[in-house]
Every structure is written in structure tokens, then in C-alpha cells.
Write a structure and sequence with these properties.
Low-confidence stretches: none
Strand content: 15-25%
Number of helices: 3
Strand order of the largest sheet: 1-2
Radius of gyration: 22 Å
Mean pLDDT: 85
Shape: elongated
Order of helices and strands: EEHEEHH
Structural class: alpha+beta
Number of strands: 4
Length: about 80
């Protein structure tokens, strides 16, 4: 399918046919990825079960930040 860029204020955009939006099951908020001469659009994936993931992280003792400085110190001097 070929489509054209259209002016939208100081920007440009595309119009997606209703059938394309329905077929791709697009929602009103999309993620746009740009690279190698192409664009990829996908629905924003909201994080489900974040509370359960946070509890599991805590129970595995993976939510501690007190050792952060020790980790970053491992790389000191490597940039020179």
C-alpha cells in the first residue's frame, strides 16, 4: 500500500485507512520506532502485574540500591 506524507502544521504525517487501523488493532497511543529507512508502529504495551513483579523483586532481594555505588565504581577509569 502506498500512502503520502501530508502537512500537519509544521510537521508531516500519514493517514491510516480505517481498515488498516482495525486490522492492526491499533489503539490511540502508539510506540514509534525509527531505523534503517523504516518506521514501525505498535500499540503501547502497558505493564500488567507490576505489583506482583515488584513483590517478587523484593522477595528476591533484587530491589536494593545501596550497592549501586560499588557497581559503578567498577568502571571508573575505563573511560580514559
Amino acid at each position: 500500500m502506498r500512502i503520502k506524507l501530508v502537512p500537519i502544521g509544521n510537521s508531516q504525517g500519514i493517514r491510516l485507512p480505517k481498515s488498516v487501523v482495525e486490522q492492526a488493532k491499533l489503539t490511540t497511543e502508539l510506540e514509534l520506532e525509527v531505523g534503517d529507512g523504516k518506521l514501525t508502529l505498535r500499540n503501547v504495551q502497558s505493564r500488567h502485574n507490576w505489583e506482583a513483579d515488584a513483590i517478587a523483586c523484593h522477595e528476591a532481594n533484587e530491589d536494593r540500591l545501596d550497592d549501586w555505588d560499588a557497581t559503578t565504581a567498577d568502571f571508573e577509569g575505563d573511560w580514559e
